[in-house]
Amino acid sequence: MTKSKSSYKCTNCDYNSPRWIGQCPNCQEWNSFVEKIETNIENNFLNKSKIDPSKLNLKKLSDIKTETQNRMLSSYLEWDRVMGGGVLPGSFIILTGDPGIGKSTLLLQVANKISKDKKVIYFSSEESLQQVKNRAQRLGIPKNSDLFFSDQSNLEAIIQIALIEKPDILILDSIQNCSLSESSNIIPGTVGQLREAGFLLCKLAKENNIAILITGHITKDGYIAGPKVLEHIVDGVFYLQGEDKWQTRILRSVKNRFGTIQETGFFEMGTEGMQEVPDINKLILHEASENPGSALISYIEGSRPLLLELQSLCVTSKFGIPQRIITGIDPKRVILIAAILEKYLHIRFSTQDIFFKISGGFKIKSTSCDLGIALSLLSSYFQKPLPEKSISIAEVSLTGQIKPINQIELQIGEAQKFGINKIFISKSQKLKSSSNTICFKNIYELIKLFPEE
Ligand code: TYD
Ligand code: MG
Q1: Could you tell me if 392 and 440 lie in one domain?
Q2: What is the pTM of this model?
Q3: Which domain covers residue 356, as residue numbers?
């Protein structure tokens, strides 16, 4: 006989409890417990005699139909590239970012472009249709645009509309603001509701080949608000981030089942919405200084090389413990490079305050900028600028060796496009052409860039 008993499970972290509790003792999430009915497993699926052979639907690769799906292009090259070459039919995507960063604006612009040859429905559960219309007018979207709008925020109704209308793309702005059906016993706005809504929308996307783009809020720590499981269900997670300069907005893919991750697209928020910035490197180099402490580096983001300016300021410390104020990179990386320079070149960075940043407020995670960090620190320490039109692309080892890095040809090519003609690399870097390169074997050789007058 099947013996069943009820227990409660946290929808955020799967913690089990025999009773319903308001706050999960494991992940501290509120209102995340839902009832689950446990049955005696042995009686169900471990019993071979109960298996229905007609349900064994195993297939070989040759039995699976090949479907070529045409991606939906928006004519915004930055958007299409980050999506992995346009939005794929039937994909389920979340766009997230701080409030007011421009998610709704960008989605409306993209929706308008795609609606020229695809059916797109925009559900604005956060804003009234009047507000959406005002924004559309500001963005110059014509009155006769083929976009469809709805302010429906009930998920059951949204799904029914989608099943009848069969759009190519359904946009839901935002998922946190939509409610499940009246009959559902899940509390609105909770992780349970988001998880449930995520599952329903995923099913809708896959079974009906409708691409679903949702917006989601992020917590103050920068994570998507709600259950982690939402990130696992969706095919793509995209962040829209703002940098502290130039009104620049970066669209970044952090998960993409149908494209590269860490791909970035650049936009600028203007009076008429988001404008693409196709040549971000030109903008960065235009802003870069040639003063002591400034060093150019290259960094691969997704598939494209970014040329960035590192800035250091080293001053003799007035306190026993020198300050380390470092942004844009893991502070430990800069402290480590300073320690390597101190060890091998006997420069006393331990008596210096170090201020370090990446111009434009960019954030990077790569060891290919090690040499740039070293040269930027040395340049500030000696108060001597680095040679004009120079860039550093190499790693530094703990033993003071200058090490080669991957994908360097692409980065050198990009730098040369902008007239950079002194490329500092590792002596052991293998290259097809060595024009414009200046090689270093170890950290001792860097000192020759700062000759005594
Ligand atoms: P919005 O797209 O509503 O952000 P989100 O959906 O991420 O919350 O963007 C709102 C901000 O963008 C608001 O501060 C006004 C500004 N904005 C412009 O600067 N130019 C424009 O053309 C538009 C439509 C908005
Ligand atoms: Mg919005």
Answers
A1: yes
A2: 0.75
A3: 282-449
391 with 269, same domain: the answer is no
Residue 80 per-residue DSSP state: H
Query: Please, are residues 383 and 315 in contact by the beta-carbon 8 Å criterion?
Result: no
φ/ψ of residue 212, rounded to 5: -115, 125
Residue type, 306: L
The 10s digit of each residue's pLDDT in 91-109 is 999 998 888 889 999 999 9
Predicted pLDDT at 370 = 96
* Three-class SS state of 311: strand
∠ at Cα 214 (213, 220), nearest 5°? 140
Return the CATH number at 364: 3.30.230.10
Q: Is the CB of 140 under 6 A from ligand 1?
A: no
Burial class (CB in 10 A: 0-12, 13-18, 19+), 295: buried
Cβ(95) to ligand 1 under 6 A?
A: no
Tally of domains within the chain: 3
Q: How far is the CA of 336 from the centre of ligand 2 (A)?
A: 41
**Domain check: are 240 and 114 in the same one?**
yes
For residue 313, CA distances in Å to 14, 326, 355 come to 48, 10, 5
Q: 217-265 pLDDT, tens per residue?
A: 876 665 656 656 688 889 999 999 876 556 788 898 889 998 887 788 9
Is the pLDDT assigned to residue 338 strictly greater than 70? Answer: yes
Pairing of strands 16-17, 92-96: unpaired
Shortest-distance Cα residue to atom 14 of ligand 1: 100
Q: Across residues 198-210, what is the average pLDDT? A: 93
Nearest CA to ligand 1 atom 23: 273
CA 89 – CA 149 distance, rounded (Å)? 20
Q: What is the CA radius of gyration of the chain?
A: 27
